[in-house]
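Question: what's this shape?

___
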Amino acid sequence: MMKPNERVAYLLTRCGQTDGVLPPTTSGTIIPYVFHRDGTPIRYFRRSWLSACTVAGCPGQIPHDFRRTAVRNLERAGISRSAAMALVGHKTQSIYNRYAIVAEQDLKDAGEKLAILHHAPVKRRKVAQLRPR
């Protein structure tokens, strides 16, 4: 299981944001927090969050929007639920399910896949006859 800072570095690398090395603080240590002041996590980060979203070009977003998007992307990519839960930090299946929202298009895609499965030609195998005793 990855430690929190390894998870963050992995996710940033996958998103193309970094080479997997988190930027060190002024003290030179690597910090696993997004919002911090020299390693001390910011407990109330509303203003920092709003500023960061504005700078990133997505004002008005809330942290849960991104968590929901992450869960949805993991599901669409076919990542197992246990791995997805570990990546996003959900400890229980019920919490994970709150974020795993199914869109109308997902249901249509599932229906089409099922139709393809049931209309696929059946592969027949040759069966050897047994000789009676």
